[in-house]
Design goal:
The chain contains ten helices and twelve strands. The chain has 312 residues and is of the alpha/beta class. It has two domains: 69 residues, Alpha-Beta Plaits (2-Layer Sandwich), CATH 3.30.70; 220 residues, Thiamin diphosphate (ThDP)-binding fold, Pyr/PP domains (Rossmann fold), CATH 3.40.50. The strands form three sheets. It has a seven-stranded mixed β-sheet with strand order 7-6-8-9-11-10-12, sandwiched between helices. Strands 1-4-5 form a three-stranded antiparallel β-sheet. A hairpin with a 2-residue loop joins strand 4 and strand 5. The protein is globular, with a radius of gyration of 19 Å.
Length: 312
């Protein structure tokens, strides 16, 4: 059985794309925010939970015989996400929330975020949070972890933030083998500030600052994980996942969970890149934006574990 939080749903249609039984469809009714929310169209649901896993808003609960199969993580607040419809940040937030719940980390967690689409992430989690300046989250996290070495500390950053403005802070955290975790979202542009070209933007991509398409004049797309893997400790953990399909969402969760455990085991620096979609600035509907990740982004940014320490 599928239960949809009608006021939280933004009608992005991602759940309809992946439902194996075509159970979910648009209601034709608009919620208070002006979105045509989805709802079950028939009784063929097999309670697989895929719709809930891919929902960027955490708006879907799945039950089977009155038992909850999939729902919003307990560590997430009731606040609605501030992300655009179909934005991958919501899925990634939920993944992190699931892991915090499963590992029992809520009381020991301190999150750090800089400026970007995730600026209000502290409203989403029932954990302690610190806001840093643009690009400075790793520097803030370094200070927190050194003062409170037994706390679990992670940063949540965008690709422009970690690859340009904060490259030095993030790189030297890896070089010093700081014992915290970076989760960064690669959607190929500066999302919050207007869709400008970023270090990870693929060549040929039209952005607000490359209206004729990105060329080598603006720089080749930077593979952050591979770059960071060349520095620091041999025992660091670095991986890249994506949230374009249910299978990749599950794999990405494994990578982030492994990175979190790496920190808990005091093995030093860990980082997971997540390839996500920015439908608004890509000027694509949410479903086609996910297809772009699959067809265009992943071939340039291959998925998998990039650096696995000898003791990891």
């Amino acid at each position: 059985m599928i239960i949809v939080d009608q006021e939280r749903c933004k009608g992005c249609s991602i759940c309809t794309k992946f439902c194996p039984k075509n159970v979910i469809g648009h209601s034709g009714v608009f919620n208070k925010a002006g979105y045509d929310y989805v709802e079950p169209q028939n009784e063929d649901c097999i309670s697989c939970g895929i719709c809930s896993q891919v929902c960027p808003e955490g708006a879907i609960t799945v039950k089977k015989e009155d038992k909850v199969v999939y729902s919003r993580p307990q560590v997430l607040t009731d606040s609605a996400f501030t992300y655009c419809p179909g934005c991958s940040h919501g899925v990634i937030n939920r993944i992190i929330g699931e892991i915090i719940d499963e590992m029992g980390l809520a009381e020991e967690t301190i999150g750090v975020t800089p400026i970007g689409c995730s600026i209000f992430i502290y409203k989403n989690f029932k954990v302690d949070y610190v806001e840093g300046a643009h690009g400075r989250a790793p520097a803030v996290a370094t200070g927190i972890k050194r003062v409170y070495p037994d706390k679990f500390v992670f940063t949540y950053q965008g690709d422009g933030d970690i690859g340009a403005i904060g490259l030095g802070e993030a790189m030297y955290a890896a070089i010093r083998d700081e014992n915290f975790t970076i989760v960064f979202v690669n959607n190929g542009n500066y999302g919050m500030t207007g869709g400008q070209v970023a270090p990870t933007t693929l060549l040929g991509t039209v952005t607000t600052t490359t209206p004729k398409g990105k060329t080598v004049h603006e720089g080749y797309p930077v593979r952050i994980c591979e770059t960071f893997a060349t520095v620091g400790s041999d025992n660091a953990y670095i991986a890249r996942g994506a949230v374009d399909t249910p299978a990749n969402i599950r794999k990405t969760k494994q990578y982030i969970k492994k990175a979190f455990q790496h920190q808990l085991d005091k093995k030093g620096f860990s980082m997971v890149e997540v390839l996500g979609a920015c439908p608004t600035n890509w000027k694509l509907d949410p479903v086609k934006a996910l297809d772009k990740i699959t067809d265009t982004v992943i071939p340039y940014f291959p998925l998998g574990e990039i650096k696995v320490g000898k003791e990891a």
